[in-house]
Amino acid sequence: MLELYQFELSQYSEKVRLILDYKGLEYRKVEVTPGVGQIEVYQLSGQSQVPILKDGSTVIADSTKIAKYLDQKYPDRPILPTDPTQRGLCLMMEEWADESIGTKSRVVLFQGISQDQSFRSALLPPSTPDFLKNLIEAVPSDLLRTLGSGLGASPDAVKSAEDAIKQDLEALCLILQDRPYLTGNQPTLADLAVAGLSILLKFPAGPYLNIPEKLRGKGVIGIADNPLYEPFFTWRDRLYTEFRKPLPYTATTPIGTGQKPTSIEIE
């Protein structure tokens, strides 16, 4: 079975999960514990970032490379168009989504984390001890914003990312107002990338992510609840309803917590 080494709330992991579900491929999720679990990821792939896909003896890192591998190895329900113009638009939009929505949404999410103490602990992995959740909730918002400034999430950086995301969502709403998908009449990598990468702006309403139920359908204030962007999120949720398989779907094995997947060895 395919194995996906992931963080549950990684947008790039979600992009790959959406592709796997769209293609109808069975896979096993291997949840990587930040820090110690990434050591094993490095041993597996030569780098420490997720997602990583393991298919037998083949190991692929990077969500775009994984997407292209899956489309070549498992050609049913292709995600890359054959028409040159549509293929070019698809690849360009996927790259744009990675660099824009994928990176900026994490900065924008920091705003919500710093404002809402309960929101912080709800985003932690389910295995996080209660004492650590309580400790994180107790961090003053002012201190968290100060720490964020040192991590590239200063108030100015958050404002800039928020403005850019709003422009992106406006553009997507305009593109989708008279067509079912971004580059044509069938879903492509562009659609699956944009949909998966948007989860930190507003979580899907259905049971697709291993997060507290109270977070489903919730997101960044001023974006998730803004009627101007409702057409995009309605489109995104329709994509999920049609193609994303709800939980529980895959077996999950944590690494970095004393447990190891049954097939971590590279042949």
Description:
The protein is α/β, with parallel strands linked by helices. Helix content is 50%, strand content 9%. A five-stranded mixed beta sheet has the order 4-3-1-2-5, with helices on both faces. Helix 4 crosses helix 7 and helix 4 runs parallel beside helix 9. The C terminus is likely disordered.
Query: What's the shape?
Result: globular
Rg, please?
18 Å
Distance between the termini: 14 Å
Count of runs of 4 or more consecutive helical residues: 10
Please describe the topology of this protein.
Layout: E1 2-6, H1 11-22, E2 27-32, H2 36-45, E3 52-55, E4 58-61, H3 63-73, H4 84-115, H5 117-122, H6 130-137, H7 141-150, H8 155-176, H9 189-197, H10 230-243, E5 252-255
Parallel strand pairs: 1-2, 2-5
Antiparallel strand pairs: 1-3, 3-4
